[in-house]
Amino acid sequence: MSELEHLDELMSCRLDVGRKAVMPCSVVIFGASGDLTARKLIPALYHLFLDKQMPASFRIIGFARREKTDESWRAELREALGQFSRTKPVDDDAWGKFAANIHYCRGDMTETAAYEKLRGQLDGFGDPALRNNLLFYLATQPSQFGEVAEQLHQAGLLEKEPKQGWQRIVVEKPFGHDAASALALNNELTRFAHEQQVFRIDHYLGKETVQNILMFRFSNSIFERLWNRESVDHIQITVSEKNSVGGRGGYYEEAGALRDMVQNHLLQVLSLVAMEPPVSLEAEAIRDEKVKLLKSIRTLDAAEVAKNVVRGQYFAGVMDGKPQGGYRQEPKVQPDSNVETYAALKLFIDNWRWSGVPFYLRTGKCLPLSASEVRVQFRPTPHVLFAAACGPKLDPNALTLRLQPNEGIYLRFNGKVPGTAVGVRPVRMHFSYDSEFGAYTPEAYERLLLEAIAGDATLFIRRDEVETAWQIVDSIRAGWNGRPLSNREFYAAGTWGPIAGEELLAQSGHVWRDPQPLK
Ligand code: BG6
Description:
This protein is of the alpha/beta class. It folds into 2 domains: 25-172, NAD(P)-binding Rossmann-like Domain (Rossmann fold); 205-506, Dihydrodipicolinate Reductase, domain 2. Helices cover 38% and strands 20% of the residues. The chain is built from 18 helices and 17 strands. It has helices spanning 3-16, 35-50, 70-84, 92-99, 112-124, 128-132, 145-154, 179-189, 208-218, 221-224, 249-274, 283-295, 302-308, 387-390, 433-437, 444-454, 463-480, 499-506; strands at 25-30, 58-64, 102-106, 134-138, 167-171, 198-200, 232-240, 309-315, 317-319, 322-324, 342-348, 358-364, 371-378, 398-404, 408-417, 423-432, 490-492. A 9-stranded mixed sheet has the order 16-15-14-13-7-12-11-8-17, with helices on both faces. It has a 6-stranded parallel sheet with strand order 3-2-1-4-5-6. A hairpin with a 3-residue loop joins strand 14 (398-404) and strand 15 (408-417). It is globular and about 80 Å long. The two termini are 32 Å apart.
């Protein structure tokens, strides 16, 4: 066995230890007619089935109001799969076997009779595991979460202490629109289910590269010892998107970049990058550390918000050589809207490890590239020996975790330019997922659905986590206090954001390092 094969074997053994088994169960999707079911959930479950990761026996029930039969719903899903499956063409034989487990339950979420019908359908499967092990996926408006949970409970399908089997609820974002509404939603849900039965999704946690942040930090001794204020100058987290708000204007007017992206995805990435090592790999141990980290983020008062947080909104520009309209011209957007399509934050983490280290977070729509990166910028060398050859500012070392696309990790350091002159310039060491592991690209939802079926909550957001993240966002919104955007906060579509975003870093002598379109 080669050294590499041996390593492979060792690692896979280790990762299999402690993984929870998947039991036969039924997955019930509420709001099954919605876009998410056809675009993400069914393709994810189908791929789990293809990869032999689904339980030996399972059923999927779509619950929605429209009139459909099992057959017509299956046909609809098959058509969508042609478009949304990550492997093409769809294997019709495999689909046929998978689809035989898919059923439809027509019903109104507010009507008791519909839940009785659902229970009848589950009873009809004639297998106690398919009747009692239940995963309820609430792809509905958050305002319906409480009602669905209550109705399920009344129908005897959701118990805090089930006598047989297990019951879990999976919910989607937006999980509230501020701390008070998130608290109210949590209270609603936990009337009929224990916190341990509630699985709140942040699809970023389903991404391989986001999961790799903990592996990378805590399975390598060379990096973790640099991961602190002694060595790190600052950290930049960028989640940029080329997409415009497009058809989502109605939602976006209510949300904005801070609620849509920062409250969840960016703060999740930040907490994984900055948290302390957990005491074990148990879900609660990891989530305890993430909450601790979120609680150590310095709260900003109005004056600090003005100094440390930048909003932006795109106006008409050019994307990929084509004209792109401004946000205010998007459908369902107010012509004088002040909603932010870009947000940049300078945060401080008041703990022993990170005291004094700025964390810059930014996200935006209509930026030049869709890419997510964490860049750890190390401190410069104390004395620049090579100043004569390369100017007073030798490029500091940096480690970039490229989360998507072209997933990988790069270490930037300085090297001698070959030749007789003393030339120094930055060079890169590059690990690429594709070249190392091949194109293994499961969708985030595959992993998340599998974990929810297995009952492992590590990749889901705990109640106190979501509430703490909202408190951070609420203090920023309070600082904005309805103030209109200034001229320095607008940016042309296709550029890297407003001038105010550049100025935010310039105050401390820093500059944004924009993600590059890497191959
Ligand atoms: C969603 C946001 O949660 O994440 C969208 O609502 C955003 O506005 C999307 O486009 C980004 O996800 P990804 O996986 O494409 O980076």
